[in-house]
Amino acid sequence: MNVEELIAKWDIQRKKDEEQFQSLFPESDDIVAIVLRGHLMVEEYIDRLNRHCFHYSKFYDQAKLPFSKKLLIAQAQILVPHDNPNSFFDCHKKLNELRNNLAHNLESPKLPNKITEFLDLVEINYLDRITENDDFRNESLEKRLRMAISYLLGQLSVMDNVVEFMEKSRHYGSGEQKNPADS
User: N or C: which end of the chain has fewer CB atoms below 10 A?
Assistant: First the structure.
């Protein structure tokens, strides 16, 4: 597969990602829906990314790994294009803590603190990449959550594309491919 074919494939995937995002993550002021759906999408993107590092990804899927283990696999294989790569994955850990808090207790007294911890971590590290709006922290909590999760999803999508490109250009990757000439 040449570079032009990969770029065309990425464009198709980006459009699919945007459609999925719009259908699963519509404008909402429901914090529970934003966090649970956002976390689910993040986990799906991490799975997609992680499958690249296994010759037989079906075994990765069959392992039924918890989010924390999936995140470690992603962290182990990816060179994150950020000043502090650990902070990128720490944001995902905070999102997972927030999701777990919500999933186990919708009326949790810890919820406001968990939301603040997640947003503070994302915004401290990436606010300039999320928005050019200086008043962003004055936006609604729901909007800030959506934008923070959207940023994480976008970064994961880029990483997935880069890893896929590296695999295709080096002619290594999934052992599930029958004929390398077809890739």
Answer: C
pTM over 0.90: no
Looking at the chain, the whole-number percentage of residues with pLDDT higher than 90 is: 31
Buried (b) or exposed (e) across 160-170, using 16+ Cβ within 10 A? bbbbbbebbee
Structure tokens at 136: 């962003």
Give 53-71 pLDDT, tens digit per residue.
Answer: 888 999 999 999 999 999 9
DSSP 136: G
Token pair, residue 159, equals 């990483």
Distance CA 105, CA 84 (A): 32
Cα–Cα distance, 133 to 119 (Å, whole number): 16
Answer for the pair 13, 161: CB distance below 8 angstroms, yes or no.
yes
- Cα(48)–Cα(84) distance, integer angstroms: 23
Weakest-pLDDT range from 45-49, 53-57, 77-81, 105-109: 77-81
Residues 49/70, Cβ–Cβ less than 8 Å = no
Scanning 25-84, the segments in alpha helix (DSSP H) are 31-51, 57-62, 67-77
Residue whose tokens read 């991490």: 46
Alpha-carbon gap, residue 156 to 152, rounded angstroms: 6
